[in-house]
């Protein structure tokens, strides 16, 4: 049986929960990872016990996968994410983008791949999960146009992206390495323990004039507007 068929079969029992209204069960992802994946891997694609995360194919989209901690971390507001000892889940998510590429005709270009975490009010699940998927064509074009105007200090983007007025930061390098977007955001806040949950946080691959890197985006969420808005779960840019 192929991976995709096996995952579909094993997640069948969770379909009613995942497609139910958000208020029906906000712990579905935690139940999948804690009760299933850490025991037998399936229905997850993989479980990294050393780094404390699992990769799950999202039921939405052609290629979208989710990185989900195997420890109980409710979301961006969790105090655990402010602890430097906590694993750099964004760096891990970037390293796992091959699971997205494997479901598409070819690998997603660096500037077409994104990692998104929704703010507390813009999510349906109370277990941290990073959406790993294609950027929308609109977001890709806007960020490509602004890329070389983004500096190493946080500053507002000149253009809106997917309806968001993001503040952006440039990070150089092929991989995120020791750069942790959660900690970088926390440093900008007066009271991270209270304010982190209000923010969307997105990391996008970039090709700057001086080499590869990343664009990190954040904003204070408005109702029903999450960081995931920059993504296109049909991966139109790959068609």
TrEMBL record:
- UniProt pathway annotation: Lipid metabolism; Phospholipid metabolism; CDP-diacylglycerol degradation; phosphatidate from CDP-diacylglycerol: step 1/1
Q: Where in the sequence is the signal peptide annotated?
A: 1-24
What keywords are annotated for this sequence in UniProt? Answer: Cell membrane, Hydrolase, Lipid biosynthesis, Lipid metabolism, Membrane, Phospholipid biosynthesis, Phospholipid metabolism, Signal, Transmembrane, Transmembrane helix
Name the InterPro entries on file.
Answer: CDP-diacylglyc_Pase, HIT-like_sf
Catalytic activity field? a CDP-1,2-diacyl-sn-glycerol + H2O = a 1,2-diacyl-sn-glycero-3-phosphate + CMP + 2 H(+)
EC numbers for this chain = 3.6.1.26
Presence of the UniProt keyword Protein biosynthesis in the record: no
Annotated Gene Ontology MF terms? Answer: CDP-diacylglycerol diphosphatase activity
User: What is the name listed in the Swiss-Prot or TrEMBL entry for this protein?
Assistant: CDP-diacylglycerol pyrophosphatase
């Amino acid at each position: 049986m192929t991976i995709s068929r096996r995952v579909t079969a094993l997640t069948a029992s969770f379909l009613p929960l995942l497609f139910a209204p958000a208020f029906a069960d906000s712990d579905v992802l935690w139940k999948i990872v804690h009760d299933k994946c850490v025991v037998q891997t399936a229905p997850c694609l993989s479980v990294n016990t050393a780094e404390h995360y699992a990769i799950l194919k999202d039921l939405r989209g052609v290629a979208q996968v989710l990185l989900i901690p195997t420890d109980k971390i409710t979301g961006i507001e969790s105090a655990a994410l402010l602890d430097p000892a906590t694993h750099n889940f964004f760096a891990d998510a970037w390293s796992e983008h091959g699971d997205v590429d494997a479901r598409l005709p070819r690998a997603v270009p660096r500037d077409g791949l994104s990692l998104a975490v929704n703010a507390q009010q813009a999510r349906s699940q109370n277990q941290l999960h990073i959406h790993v998927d294609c950027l929308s064509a609109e977001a890709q074009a806007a960020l490509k146009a602004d890329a070389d105007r983004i500096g190493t200090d946080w500053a507002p983007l000149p253009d809106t992206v997917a309806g968001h007025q993001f503040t952006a930061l440039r990070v150089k390098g092929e991989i995120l390495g020791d750069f942790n977007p959660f900690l970088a955001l926390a440093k900008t806040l007066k009271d991270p323990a209270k304010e982190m949950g209000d923010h969307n946080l997105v990391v996008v691959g970039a090709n700057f004039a001086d080499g590869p890197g990343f664009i990190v985006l954040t904003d204070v969420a408005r109702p029903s507007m999450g960081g995931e808005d920059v993504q296109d779960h049909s991966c139109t840019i790959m068609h």
